[in-house]
Design a protein that fits this description.
Two copies of one chain form a homodimer. By secondary structure, chain A is an alpha/beta fold. The first copy, chain A, has two domains: 5-15 and 93-224, Rossmann fold (3-Layer(aba) Sandwich); 18-91, Putative phosphatase, domain 2 (DNA polymerase, domain 1, Orthogonal Bundle), CATH 1.10.150. Chain A contains ten helices and eight strands. Chain A has helices at 18-27, 32-52, 59-74, 80-89, 99-108, 121-130, 153-156, 158-163, 177-186, 214-224, and strands at residues 5-8, 15-16, 94-95, 112-117, 139-142, 170-174, 189-193, 209-211. The termini of chain A are close together. The interface between A and B is medium-sized, with 31 and 31 residues.
Chain lengths: 225, 225
């Protein structure tokens, strides 16, 4: 059966997180890249630790905790103003330039489109609106409703449950290699938007498709039809 | 009630992983630190992803997968000989110099001592023997029997189940901040052997005690008696 629904990861896949590093560089000259990298690593680590131990709290708060740890570790003073600016950046990320066109085209072909993200609903609402993507998605799904972050199966299960399409007929699209592995283990078809030309994770998973931008998703879907 | 049992993490807590970085530096001059750090990060990441998705495989294999990824990512050629040497190092790690004396002293006070590690039984047997620690532990517990890595509660549950001592009467000792958080969330008393003077994780957990070496564990236990 051909693909009936496409579920997109949000941060890094649809929305460009580059501006976070750029702002960090303005706030902490010479340290922007280190802040952006450690902040992101800790953010993801904390989602996993909280999911493993059933100590969920919303992604916004986890992200803030990760920023506090990151600055403490790097010996950088985090003023309330800097914290507010950096966190606020998450609410107004830009979409990658090709995205709007690709999403409109896929939607016009009758595919159900959705987002499935670790972000809590308020964060996702804000970023979808800021990127001008209102109305393109059948569902904007947040793991908040199951209180477990990706890559917990309960998080991915939101896709079939809320879209009414089986995982095997759904293409899961992410720029994060680990997200692709979790989604494939869950049972989705997968497409890896490998924007940074990273090596494949050594987890025994090969995505069904791989490319560099969302344009490659359109090509992949056309080939499967 | 006072502490009746002490459970130790293995790698980095009892056994010094420094020699792994030193060997990596000999094999990949100028890159030893980067290899050791990325290898370790990936090893831990893979244990979490496999636990979240119920795709367990033994720590030895996960460690090997992480090494393969690490060298691919850093653009380093991993010969079979280098791989064998690096993996073999895990079987013959030295204990930190203070450990034998501290363990013997704690044991002589009638405390039950155990190891609880992500390592599979074969790895743990080899490293305990190499460090001359045979006979010091009531139990050497591997998560292999529950097929979930730390920080899953099922992994920590091995402690109370196999030692017959409640978590609240057990001190869990680790050099890994994340392990301390998982153990505290599970219900253990915790002591963080913060060998690298790392900042506390921003996860809402404060260990019951903290020090720099295993000698500090002895002092902490004496104070609780």
């Amino acid at each position: 059966m051909s693909i009936q629904a496409i579920i997109f990861d949000a941060y890094g896949t649809l929305f460009d997180v580059y501006s976070i590093g750029a702002l960090a560089e303005r706030l902490f000259p010479g340290k922007g890249a280190a802040v952006a990298e450690l902040w992101r690593d800790k953010q993801i680590e904390y989602t996993r630790l909280r999911t493993l131990s059933n100590t969920y709290k919303p992604f916004w708060e986890v992200t803030q905790d990760a920023l506090v740890f990151c600055c403490r570790k790097l010996g950088l003073p985090l003023t309330l103003d800097a914290q507010t600016q950096l966190m606020g950046q998450y609410a107004k990320l830009q979409a990658f330039p090709e995205n709007l066109g690709v999403l409109q085209s896929l939607k016009s072909e009758g595919l159900k489109l959705a987002i499935l993200s670790n972000g809590n609903p308020e964060m996702l609402d804000a970023v979808v609106r800021a990127a001008g993507m209102d109305g393109l998605f059948t569902q904007v799904l947040s793991v908040h409703s199951v209180q477990k972050f990706k890559t917990a199966p309960e998080a991915y299960q939101l896709g079939p449950d809320m879209l009414g399409v089986a995982a095997r007929d759904t293409l899961f699209v992410s720029s994060n290699g680990w997200d692709i592995c979790g989604a494939a283990w869950f049972g989705f078809r997968t497409f890896w938007v490998n924007r940074s030309a990273a090596p494949l994770e050594e987890l025994g998973v090969t995505p069904n498709g791989e490319g560099r931008t969302l344009d490659d998703v359109r090509r992949h879907v056309a080939q499967q039809a």
